[in-house]
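Work Package 3 committed the consortium to producing structural models of liganded targets before the mid-term review. Because experimental data for this complex are still outstanding, the team generated a predictive model from sequence and the ligand definition alone, so that downstream docking and mutagenesis planning could proceed in parallel. The input record is reproduced below exactly as it was submitted to the modelling pipeline, together with the SMILES string for zinc ion.
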Amino acid sequence: MTRHLLSCEDLTAEDAILILDTAKRLGELSTGPMRKLPTLRGRTVVNLFFEDSTRTRISFEAAAKRLSADVINFAAKGSSVEKGESLKDTAMTLEAMGADAVVIRHPASGAPYRLANAGWIGGSVINAGDGTHAHPTQALLDAYTMREHLRSGTGDLQGLRVCIVGDILHSRVARSNVTLLTTLGADVTLVAPPTLLPIGVEEWPATISYSLDDHLPETDALMMLRVQNERMNSAYFPSAREYSRRYGLTSSRMSRMPEHAIVLHPGPINRGMEIASEVADSPRAVIIEQVRNGVITRMAVLYLLLGGSESGLGDLVDEEATA
Amino acid sequence: MTTWHIAGAQPLGGEPVDIAISDGTISAILPTGSTPAPHSTLIEAHGLIALPGLVDLHTHLREPGREDAETVESGCRAAALGGFTAVHAMANTDPVADSAGVVEQVWRLGQTAGLCDVHPVGAVTVGLQGERLAEIGAMADSAARVRIFSDDGHCVNDALLMRRALEYTKAFDGVVAQHAQEKRLTEGAQMHEGVVSSRLGLTGWPAVAEEAIIARDVLLAEHVDGRLHVCHVSTAGSVEIIRHAKARGVKVTAEVTPHHLMLTDDLVETYDPVYKVNPPLRTARDVVALRAALADGTIDAVATDHAPHPSESKDCEWAAAAMGMLGLETALSVVIETMVNTGLMGWAEVADRMSIRPARIGGLEGQGRPLAVGEPANLVLVDAGASWVVDPAAMASRSRNTPYRALTLPGRVVATIYRGRPTVLEGRLV
Ligand SMILES: [Zn+2]
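The resulting structure, written out as tokens with the ligand in place, is given here.
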């Protein structure tokens, strides 16, 4: 494993499978008699959030606490773009506090990369979402969820047909998923209006399509991305209604998917825009499960980056059992 | 001491000669080994190439307003070390150089520094706001004799204003230097729009945003028979537009920066803001086209776009960082690396693109002249075989934002002679 998790490009297939396997084991352990594992006792994890995201912050916080780490939440009011304290000064403050890992969410693409490589701090850096660049733990929890449902919870995702629909241009979730899922052997199709696909996307390891309807019968996992209403102000599409008519997931569209297919969404969902309410609430939507899997995947990332190993988990359980 | 004897220099890389300088003028060109005139000081130059002093069309000296990043004096020191004997100071200072008062202030600061000629560029529009013309005529008539007008940093987006500026400057043979950047197409732009930006999740600055403005401007220049100069051409498509316009006889000239001749957008993968510049670093295909255009003369000049920034403007995340990089002290070395050592240009072409043509575009009389008897003694002596490792901390500029940090570059400026007096000897400021 690398020291930092900045993007899914840092992960080989073996790394990714190790994280997913570790997450599975941690999930089993934390539903057992020991809800809290002592692994990271005495270690400090800082949640450094330059962007409001209660969901992601709480998920990381829960993950770190279940591993017995000390958690410091550092909500930076406004980034240095908005003339707050600079990223460098904040980083040096955290270094002085002795952070073993910094979980960073930042509106600027590449900010976690700078934090890890500019020589400002010594601990591990975990990217919890940077601008429109990457969100690796989201991709890991998505892969975990797909593996549980469609590959019996083991191995890679060879041959899995995944369709990602929506605002690919502005989506760090899409970028990280394309990288991770293809690393794990899945076939990824990106569906969006041409305005919401980046120039250069033809070089990505994915199939590009402008039509959702063409792909529904051949999809095992359908991931709907949040589309912001405001995008229409920059002429990405004419109106919310037109977007939802062409790219929204309705019940009738869902019925054209194979029986086994699942629907994912990174949340928060925009009911009636990219996904109809009855779809979001249907049993095929695994949105709540994604949230649950987010905690154990993040536990696995923290555990492995801060020096644990998968085999170490077995020892840990034995020790605790005999203690 | 006003008399100098340069021994054994090779003008434009030709046969070695001795060059005698007295009272600011080249007084004799002698066979090498000639006895120096009495009371003259010897400058040993065997094995060194002699070029006319370099002329930069595009320098940000930051004074007045941002003396923490650069001053006229510190910028002139960097210029002299880079082999320059004249620079054009861009207008985007604070206050903006949009009046006779400000351009005369910069002009006088240059005179006081006395290290190279400093020619202020005047703003095209008041405060670079793009709304109404600045007093272009007053700046032309001032002691600074401004001939180049530019809103650089901003594009003159309004087609009518651009047309009027191209027309108005004809009265005194001025030229409008355009920073070509279509505003709407580059809102929030962070880097070249292409494969790399798609992966990095950085908002793209498409090539078409430059090309669309250049296409419009050459048509405007053609229509009113005005003089257009295109700043920092960065794309293969821009080169084609300029090539076609020149073939039609449009009065258009163009410059390219050293960094666009050498660096490409994949460097942004480091997210290190030292590579953040406007226009952005482009692709390898663009670099090839720019080199070819400079070699065949479609692009007239190399201009540094020297843009100093204090460290806090670069020691941050990409989106928060300022755009621009240092250029004066590395320009000649980068041209040697990309154009001479590749066989694309000889020394005569280097002199043409870095001295003769830029001086002509700027309307400078005592610069960009042949190395001949009776000409002003502005020249640079270069050790083409030497190489050096770029050390930001060792630069004369007040800022440190060089993208060539730790790179080994070929060629070293050994001496710069400005108006008959050395400003640099043995690679150091005199
Ligand atoms: Zn510019």
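Reviewers should note the following from the model. The CA atoms of residues 148 and 310 of chain A lie 19 Å apart. These observations will guide the Year 2 experiments.
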